[in-house]
């Protein structure tokens, strides 16, 4: 299975993507609702780390349009933007829950490529692979940023980033080629944090990110 995704990823570099567009979460499923992120695509709030402390809201209710989205870690790593970034042509929405200094902030993004899943799946895998490269070079592009990758698989990444000892981030990235979708869940806080991080297995969070995509994007179940 992993070999198949590696081959797919290699083909991604020559992919062609559909025209730009984006909208916030809406009721329904895809199809027919494919020009916006269906509200069924979001991770369950109870599955997000620190849920017992923060009681995260239903994300569809706070989601907004995210044109040409970028991952939160890219701002810490000062990752250069690219005109060829396939996220420029995706439908995307972002849900954010900000908190004061010393408390954990939350951001979740769902990024979806419309059209056939061969092309969209390539875009999803390419996006994840470029994120992996950006994390590997983060210490070069973002002075003070020090990432530690805790999970690195063909379709998923988890990382912890410390930034000059003044703040820390926990980020989870998932690519689901079957639904042409990438999901980001990221939490960060300034230091010292008033709420201690409660360890959760990476796989548990990443699996929870993947589960709703099967429902939201009909026909994508494996």
TrEMBL record:
Residues 1-25 form the signal peptide. Keywords: Signal. It comes from Mycolicibacterium chlorophenolicum. This is ATPase. It comes from the Bacteria.
């Amino acid at each position: 299975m992993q070999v198949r995704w590696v081959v797919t990823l290699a083909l991604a570099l020559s992919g062609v993507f559909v025209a730009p567009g984006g909208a916030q979460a809406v009721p329904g499923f895809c199809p027919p609702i494919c020009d916006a992120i269906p509200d069924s695509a979001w991770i369950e709030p109870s599955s997000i780390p620190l849920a017992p402390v923060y009681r995260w809201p239903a994300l569809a209710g706070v989601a907004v349009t995210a044109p040409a989205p970028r991952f939160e870690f890219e701002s810490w790593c000062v990752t250069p933007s690219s005109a060829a970034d396939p996220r420029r042509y995706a439908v995307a929405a972002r849900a954010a829950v900000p908190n004061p200094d010393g408390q954990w902030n939350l951001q979740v993004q769902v990024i979806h490529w419309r059209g056939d899943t061969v092309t969209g799946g390539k875009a999803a895998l390419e996006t994840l692979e470029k994120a992996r490269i950006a994390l590997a070079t983060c210490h070069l592009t973002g002075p003070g940023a020090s990432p530690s990758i805790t999970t690195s698989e063909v379709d998923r990444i988890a990382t912890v980033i410390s930034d000059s000892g003044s703040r820390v981030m926990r980020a989870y990235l998932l690519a689901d080629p079957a639904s042409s979708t990438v999901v980001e869940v990221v939490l960060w806080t300034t230091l010292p944090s008033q709420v201690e991080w409660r360890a959760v297995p990476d796989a548990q969070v990443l699996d929870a990110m993947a589960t709703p995509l099967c429902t939201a994007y009909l026909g994508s179940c494996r």
